[in-house]
Design goal:
This protein is of the alpha+beta class. The chain has one domain: HIT-like (HIT family, subunit A, 2-Layer Sandwich). Helices cover 25% and strands 22% of the residues. It contains 3 helices and 5 strands. A 5-stranded antiparallel beta sheet has the order 1-2-3-5-4, with helices on one face. Strand 2 and strand 3 form a beta hairpin. The protein starts with a helix and ends in a 9-residue tail after the last strand. It binds guanosine-5'-monophosphate and zinc ion.
Length: 114
């Protein structure tokens, strides 16, 4: 998708503070962090929302979580704890329509989320 912000990060057209880059997944620091650690884990395939996922994406979705787990350990937040969030559509506050798993940690989280 040429007009997608996160696809432009994957292609290198827009710079990102990259934490992990493999054949299927890119992870980079959020530009407006909501916690001391706030990293976005995205698939390299353009998928707009959770609603656009199907069976063929099962492995890729699992990979997003395995990468989040690995980065949490790298960032040293795995034992204290962290939160993963994927917002879907307007009511959840999704603002970039290329699915992304938020990895948030380094502070105590409140529940329920706002
Ligand atoms: P959403 O609201 O869609 O769940 O999350 C989108 C996230 O992308 C937000 O946390 C926002 O701060 C982040 N974001 C938006 N534009 C950029 C950007 O240009 N660079 C980076 N690194 N993050 C961005
Ligand atoms: Zn995209």
């Amino acid at each position: 998708m040429t007009d997608c912000l996160f696809c432009k990060m994957i292609s290198g057209e827009i710079k990102a503070d990259v934490v992990l880059d493999d054949d299927k997944v890119l992870a980079f620091r959020d530009i407006n962090p909501q916690a001391p650690v706030h990293i976005l884990v995205i698939p390299k395939e353009h998928i707009a929302t959770i609603n656009d996922l199907d069976e063929a994406h099962s492995d890729m979705v699992g990979q997003l979580y395995l990468v989040a787990k690995q980065i949490a350990a790298q960032e040293g937040i795995h034992e204290a704890g962290y939160r993963t969030v994927m917002n879907c559509n307007a009511d959840a506050g999704q603002s970039v329509y290329h699915i992304h798993l938020h990895l948030l940690g380094g502070r105590l989280m409140a529940w329920p989320p706002g």
